[in-house]
Specification:
CATH class of the domain at 80-128: Mainly Alpha
Number of helices: 9
Distance between the termini: 36 Å
CATH superfamily of the domain at 80-128: 5' to 3' exonuclease, C-terminal subdomain
Mean pLDDT: 84
Number of strands: 5
Helix content: 40-55%
Shape: globular
Order of helices and strands: EEEHEEHHHHHHHH
Low-confidence stretches: 137-151
CATH architecture of the domain at 80-128: Orthogonal Bundle
Structural class: alpha+beta
Length: 200
Amino acid sequence: MIGLLRGRVLRKQPPFLLLDVNGVGYEIEAPMSTFYLLPSDDSPVTLHTHLAVREDAHILYGFANDRDRALFRALLKVSGVGGKVALAILSGMTTDEFSVTVQAGDVAALTRIPGIGKKTAERLIVEMRDRLEAPAAGGDLAAAGSERVPGSPESTLDDAMSALQALGYKAAEAQRMLRPIDTGGLSTEEIIRAALQSSR
């Protein structure tokens, strides 16, 4: 099992990234909460990883901290929740926000995440209520809060659109989420964050 990787990010295309670890490129799927903390330069990053082995693929998931990975693993144990939905949950809210949402029994907040219907939301609340840790602050990526270098407005908007669709939003819904955002000077990750916040 691959539990942790340290290297430099060669390519970011949410929810996918390519991490160079001593000359070996690992393709990793990560939630937006991890992308928000990635450095804009080639500073090394450490990702906590989870390897999912299926009949047709080996999928490596990466997380900024161990709490996100622990929540991801707990989510996978809930019936009807796979890797894609678990990533969407971690992209749509922080670990602490998810914990508060579950403890409050807020079905409506969970159903706003793509791939989660009312029954799945109710199941998440029932099954996750006793598994969740108390909220805590902090993350492992040293680059938290670092400045980003935005690309061209067109390319960042296109990348944000692709990322939202990869997270499970339909094209029309992704366009609706992006429409009100003033994307001037924003990075792809910042545009996605604004879109996800506007959908709450």
